[in-house]
Amino acid sequence: xxxxxxxxxxxxxxxxxxxxxxxxxxxxxxxxxxxxxxxxxxxxxxxxxxxxxxxxxxxxxxxxxxxxxxxxxxxxxxxxxxxxxxxxxxxxxxxxxxxxxxxxxxxxxxxxxxxxxxxxxxxxxxxxxxxxxxxxxxxxxxxxxxxxxxxxxxxxxxxxxxxxxxxxxxxxxxxxxxxxxxxxxxxxxxxxxxxxxxxxxxxxxxxxxxxxxxxxxxxxxxxxxxxxxxxxxxxxxxxxxxxxxxxxxxxxxxxxxxxxxxxxxxxxxxxxxxxxxxxxxxxxxxxxxxxxxxxxxxxxxxxxxxxxxxxxxxxxxxxxxxxxxxxxxxxxxxxxxxxxxxxxxxxxxxxxxxxxxxxxxxxxxxxxxxxxxxxxx
Amino acid sequence: xxxxxxxxxxxxxxxxxxxxxxxxxxxxxxxxxxxxxxxxxxxxxxxxxxxxxxxxxxxxxxxxxxxxxxxxxxxxxxxxxxxxxxxxxxxxxxxxxxxxxxxxxxxxxxxxxxxxxxxxxxxxxxxxxxxxxxxxxxxxxxxxxxxxxxxxxxxxxxxxxxxxxxxxxxxxxxxxxxxxxxxxxxxxxxxxxxxxxxxxxxxxxxxxxxxxxxxxxxxxxxxxxxxxxxxxxxxxxxxxxxxxxxxxxxxxxxxxxxxxxxxxxxxxxxxxxxxxxxxxxxxxxxxxxxxxxxxxxxxxxxxxxxxxxxxxxxxxxxxxxxxxxxxxxxxxxxxxxxxxxxxxxxxxxxxxxxxxxxxxxxxxxxxxxxxxxxxxx
DNA sequence: AACGACACCGAAATCGTTATCGATGCCTCG
DNA sequence: CGAGGCATCGATAACGATTTCGGTGTCGTT
Lengths: 377, 377
Known about the structure:
Largest interface: A-B, 60 and 61 residues
Number of helices of chain A: 16
Shape of chain A: elongated
Radius of gyration of chain A: 30 Å
CATH superfamily of the largest domain in chain A: Response regulator
Helix content of chain A: 40-55%
Strand order of the largest sheet of chain A: 2-1-3-4-5-11
Distance between the termini of chain A: 96 Å
Number of domains of chain A: 3
CATH topology of the largest domain in chain A: Rossmann fold
Largest sheet of chain A: 6 strands, parallel
Oligomer: homodimer
Strand content of chain A: 5-15%
Structural class of chain A: alpha/beta
C-alpha cells in the first residue's frame, strides 16, 4: 500500500468503521431516511470514507493544483453525493470576517424604510453579504438591545437610522459602543455627529424648500405645514426649508399654520379644528400618512383638491400612489439610500486601510401627481 | 512567586511585552485613539495582560466557582475596561448552533409580508435569535440564491413563503436541499406538501367563503371576484371558497364575473371594461392593492361605494385603512402568523428529539369598514 | 510526619476549515 | 548508483472559546 505510511492502515480502517457505525446507529435510532441523510458532513467524514487525509480533501475541493486529478474526482463525487457544504462558522473563525451586516430600523410600516431596506438587502446580497434586521420601534432601549444582539452575533458592520427617542434624549453611549467594538457604523436619514460613523441622507432642508417653492410658483400663498413633534432632526430641517422658501418670496411665516402632531397617531379631530380655523390653500406634510388623512379631512370640509387646497407629502409609497387624489410627494429615493449605505459599509469592511468618515447626500425629486394643480392658478 | 510553575515566568513576561508592543505599533500606525481602542480583545489578550491562563480568564468570566474572588474581580475589571465581548463565531463553532434563522419573502411591498416579518423578528429576538432576510421577488432563481446564501451563512432554520414562480413551475429541488442540509424549514401562507417542512397558514377557502357569505347576507347577489393569474395556490383556494358560498345560497357562479389580473401590474383599462360590461353589486378582491384601484374605477364610473357596489379585500394594511372609503378586509393576522412560524421553527431547533412535521391554521377575521354597508340593503 | 481534602489554576482537546511545511516515493539525469 | 526534482499527499498550527482533567500547594487531621 503506497499511502498510509504516516498513520497505520489499521488505524484508518478502524476509524472508518467507527464512522460508519455511528451513522448506522443514528439511522436506526431515528428510523428516518431523511434524518439519516441530513447529517452534516464535514471534511473529516469525507476523509475517513475515502481513506485520505483532511488536508487532501480540503485541497481537492478548493481546486488546489497539488492534488491528482484522480483523487479530486473521487472527492468531488463523494462531496456531491453527500451534499457537502463547508461549515461557514469555521470559515468565519479563520477569516475573522462574517460577511454579515446588521440593520436597525425604527419600524417597517413606513414605506420609506421598507424601500431603504430593499436597497440594502439587494446590494449586500449581490456582494455575498447576509443581512440581519432588528427594529427599534423608535425606542432607545430596544435600539440598544438590537445593537447588542447584532454585536453579539458578530456582524461586520451596522446600518442604522436613529430611533426618535434616541435623538430626543441624546443618548449615544450604546452607539459609541459599536465603534469601540471595531464594528463599522453607517447611519442613514436620521443621523448624528455625536457618534463616529458615516452618514447617508437627503438634504431635508433643501427638499422642503424646493417643495414649498413649487407651491408658491403654483400661486399658493397660505401654505400650512403638518409635521410631527420636534425631536426628529429631519423634520426640524424640513421646517427650516419651509420657512426659508416663504421668507424668500416675501410671504409671512405664521406659526399658526404649522401643526405638530404627536408621532404615535394622527388624531382626526385635531386636523379638523386646524383646517376649520386656519384657511389655507396648500399643505406640506412631512410624510404620506399625515397627508392622506389630512386630505380626507379637507375633502370632508367640502374643499376640492387640488383646486382649493394643494397637497405635497414626503415618501413615494403606496399610499401616495393609490390615494384619491394621488399625492404629489418628495421622493426620498429610499432604494438609492439603502444601496449607498450598504456600499459605504461594505467598502469599509473590505478595505484594509481605515477610510475617513464621510457624508453622502442623496438627491430628492418631486413627483407631481393629482394633489397639486399642473398650472398656476 | 506562587504561580507560574507550569510556564516559566520569563516566557510570560516576554509574551506580555510582545502583546503590549503590538498594540503600541497599531496605535502609532493608525494614529487614532479610536482604532486603538477598537482592537478586538480575546481571552488570550486578557490572559497575557493579567499574566494568567486563558482557561482561568474564561472561567472567571463565566462565574465558575473554582476561581478565587480576587482573580475574578481582576478579570472582570479588565474585561470591562476593554469592552470585551466573546467572539460569537468561536462559540458557534463549539456549540454547532448559530442562534440565527433566515427568512425568505416574495417581497416587502405587500403589507402582509411586512407584518409577518415583524412577528417573526420580535419573537425570534425575544428568544435571542438573529434574523436574516432575503427576497425572492417571486422568482425561483432568486429564491434558490437566497436559500443558498442562507445555508452558506449557517442558519439553524429557514422560514419561507413560496415564490409565485416556484409554485407555478413546481420546482422543489432547491427547497429539498434545505432538508438535506439538516436545516429546519417552516413555510407560511404559500406552502406545499412537496417539501418536508412545517406549514403555517390561514384557511383561504374558508375565509373567502365567509367573506362571500357576508356579502350575500348583506343582500348582494351579483358578486364579482378580482384575483390574480392562477398559479398562486392561495388565490385558487379563495376562488373555491367564493364559488362554494355562491352555490350554497343558490346563486349562479358566472365565470364572466371573475377577472384574473396578471400579477405584475394592475391595468386600469381592463378594470374599466370589466366593470362597464359586467354589472355587479359587490366585489371580492384577493388583495388590497387590487381593491383600492378597483374602487377608484368604480367611483369614476359614477357608482357609489358601498351603496351601489360593496367591496371586500384581503390584507389589513395601510391602503385599506386610509383608502376612501376605507376598505372592509379579511385580516390574515400576519403578525400572529409570523410569531407562530418563528415559534415552530425555534422549538424545532432547540429540541433534541426530532419533532413531527405539522400544519397550523391561523384564524382570520373580517374587519368591516366603510366599503360595505352596515345593514342589509 | 504522612496523608487526604480542598482551593485554585493550567494544559490540552474540541469544534471545522485552511495554509504552511514537510515528507514520501518515483523518475530522471549525471 | 546517488542526487535531485516532481507529483502527491499528510501532519500540524491557527482562528477563539469552553470544558475536562490533571496538577500544585496549603491546611487540617491522625
